[in-house]
User: What shape does this take?
Amino acid sequence: MSRKHRIDYKRDYPANWHSEIRPAVLSRAGNRCEGSPRYPDCRAENGRPHPVTGSVVVLTIAHLYEGDKATQDLTRLRAWCQRCHLLYDIWQHVRNAAETRRRQRIEAGQLEMEARS
Ligand SMILES: [Zn+2]
Assistant: This one.
């Protein structure tokens, strides 16, 4: 598996991502962070210093479910500030890495059994 997470909008995202989906989510959000599971009350305003981190907020669209880049379901998308987006993604990556290690252990065990038969 590649360690790079380069975004390929043409390949991975719906054709109307830039024209419809992204603007619709940002419009719903009212130019503010919509709040994440970790920070449900975050309403950091786009282009302004974040009230907690002090970094200028750049809202990005987060996918609630990994591998769901092709979705056109706005209920599965959130406009989030860097703090909310990054922490949510890290949590997903940690969970996925644990799952990958578990699967690799199982596969290694199966390979070992096959070699002995
Ligand atoms: Zn936020």
